[in-house]
Amino acid sequence: MAELQFAAAVAERSYEVAFEVAAGEVLAILGPNGAGKSTTLHVIAGLLQPDSGRVCVGGRTLTDTAAGISVPTHDRRVGLLLQDPLLFPHLDVQANVAFAPRSRGAGRAAARHAAAQWLAEVGLADLADRRPDQLSGGQAQRVAIARALAAEPDVLLLDEPLAGLDVAVAASARALLRRVSSDGRATVLITHDLLDVLTLADRVMVLDAGGVAEIGAVGEVLAAPRSSFGARIAGVNVVRGMAAGPDALRAVDGTLWHGRHADASSGDGALVAVFTPAAVAVYRDLPHGSPRNSVEIRVAELDADGARVRVRGQEQADGAPGLAADITAESAAALRLAAGDSVWFTVKAQEVALHPAAR
């Protein structure tokens, strides 16, 4: 079990950040370009020495500027996975993956065994003898994932690892990362994809101008962002529950949500339903011939923004943020809504995307 404790300052980049990631937890880092996301990963990996700070993993100190400690990158037991797979072009797939355990001192036979295991894990056992230039982009990225994990890192650092992959390949890679990120190591994920946050992360941290703008549980930050960047990426409804048939989710309160599986490997366990407030219609009474998803909501608050009014319901039964609907000012006036009113939210099934939940 490896907890990550991080605190670092880099004066030249106006960077000063501190946070912790528990063992088995995934922390997603969001923020605009230049906010300090890559700086964070580079300090953890030992690629950048901070002016001051301390980085510890599972009680092992990797960086401590006050004590003069700076463990070399190759001895940190940190796995770094980038958008570019960076495979060795002169080595075949198995040798690329075996390089990781070999670099940690494993013998040739043990390294080849570990490589075979991880290639099977990512579904590429039959491509072990291919060279990188014979792989598709998705295959190369899965080899990179296998190589990062074959090193048995205490901390896994993911820097936009799924960017550029097609939907089916990204879904498969996301399922793998979801499985391996909960096995006791701390994971830090940099992404611009809200879907990665919803399906992989336990908490989210927003960086801005080299500092922490906000940090908290995914649902809390997305429901009530306190930073401008957080506000830009927020604005979706999220319902968590368990699979209830081929295209449905059963929420904690028993509500049945119909949708469409957005991932090829959605499975039959915990799911998350995602849809935008703009896809929600609001009625005083349950309409005839309504869409398959109709839920009764008690209005918690109304927020007017020009010609748009956001209707927010009370928090969900599992404590998640209340569902939201965006309607026109004219509709809000006709409905004569007020906090405490009971209304119906309706959503068409094709507007609801179902994804495997992070936990």
Description of the structure:
One of its GO terms (molecular function) is ATP binding. Residues 4-234 form the ABC transporter domain. This is Molybdenum ABC transporter ATP-binding protein. Residues 288-356 form the Mop domain. There is one protein chain. The protein is of the alpha+beta class. The protein has 2 domains: 4-233, P-loop containing nucleotide triphosphate hydrolases (Rossmann fold, 3-Layer(aba) Sandwich), CATH 3.40.50.300; 237-356, RNA polymerase II/Efflux pump adaptor protein, barrel-sandwich hybrid domain (OB fold (Dihydrolipoamide Acetyltransferase, E2P), Beta Barrel). Helix content is 25%, strand content 33%. The chain contains 9 helices and 22 strands. It has helices spanning 37-45, 93-103, 108-121, 137-150, 167-180, 194-200, 218-223, 228-233, 329-335, and strands at 4-10, 15-21, 26-30, 52-57, 60-64, 69-70, 78-81, 155-159, 186-190, 203-208, 211-217, 237-243, 248-251, 256-258, 260-261, 270-275, 281-283, 293-305, 308-313, 324-328, 342-347, 353-356. A 6-stranded mixed sheet has the order 7-8-9-3-10-11, with helices on both faces. Strand 8 (155-159), helix 5 and strand 9 form a beta-alpha-beta unit. The longest helix has 14 residues, at 108-121. The two termini are 18 Å apart.
